[in-house]
Design goal:
Length: about 120
């Protein structure tokens, strides 16, 4: 079992920045691929960025060049630095972990989820 707790969400104006954090705990949590996903009201959950244990990353086209995912295996921590935020980035953001070595942005590969943190970007 892996437990995930997100923090760092909030409300910002377009063009602003936020840094999301995810603290992981549980059995072998540092051996899991991890990712950030988001879900806006009325929309399906979508992958934002993923990272393997050895640091290989993948990003959704909509966030490339603006968001950066990173992790510290020693600290069991995951981050998402979000710059140049747009109103369409408004969503609940979730941290997720997978026992597979994967960079895929598919939520079905991630069985462990945090409770989410809200990000709201105003125009």
């Amino acid at each position: 079992q892996v437990q995930l707790v997100e923090s760092g969400g909030g409300s910002v104006q377009a063009g602003g920045s936020l840094r999301l954090s995810c603290a992981a705990s549980g059995d072998n949590s540092r051996q899991f691929s991890m990712g950030w996903f988001r879900q806006a009201p009325g929309k399906e959950r979508e992958g934002v960025a993923t990272i393997t244990t050895d640091g290989s990353t993948n990003y959704a086209d909509s966030v490339k060049g603006r968001f950066t995912i990173s992790r510290d295996n020693a600290k069991n921590s995951l981050w998402l630095q979000m710059n140049s935020l747009k109103p369409e980035d408004t969503a609940m953001y979730y941290c997720a972990a997978s026992g597979f070595r994967t960079r895929l942005l598919s939520a079905t590969l991630y069985p462990y989820w945090g409770q989410g943190t809200q990000v709201t970007v105003s125009s």
